[in-house]
Amino acid sequence: MKKTLIVGAGRFGYTTANRLSELGAEVVVIDKNEKRLSALKSLVSNTLILDAIDRDAFASEIETGNFDAGVVAIGDDFSTALLAALYMKQGGIPYIVARASNPKQAKIFRKIGVELVVMPEDDMGHRLAEKLILKESEQIDLSPDTSIVRVVAPPGFIGKKLGEINFAEKGFNFLFVARKYTDQGFVKMAFPDETDFEVAENDYLLFSGDTRRIAAFLESAS
Questions:
Q1: Which of 7, 29, 65, 127 is the most exposed place for a label (fewest CB within 10 A)?
Q2: Is 70 exceeded by the pLDDT of residue 126?
Q3: Contact 25, 1 (CB under 8 A)
């Protein structure tokens, strides 16, 4: 069972802690605000009223906690968030995630060795834009930035041979095109090297790679 230390019990910290607990992780949340922690007491393994800038108390908790991961979920005080991340690194927590409010903060977190930096507002905006462009597709997210996408052939591809469509050097992979003739399933599939295959209306195309680049490429062919 993974044991995770979360610093900050605001909305981001609360949501992360609650979901980790639902997935079976052992979660400890610290915050200097007792009222925030009270909402989590029944949901996580333990809560501690503690100010992250109190180095000795924080270091003691890290030393005795034997944590597999740490999450810095402080969004309104970058100085405290940075100290928390540094103390986690010094305490030997092997995997640290930090919330950043802007690219400058993200760069600083990465400089000190934080393994994953998230910017929730930016990430949500990007995902919304991608969903709007890929609204008629099926998408499996492999990571925050990469996906497998199945989409009905856009108008700009219909009637073109695969060799005439510039899939190369786009920052993603074109996997294949599939044509469905019957209700029993797909009876024709063509792969990138079948350059003479002509894309028809209602064909399905499958891509993998950078979600934003796939979305932009498909939008340009719509």
A1: 127
A2: no
A3: yes
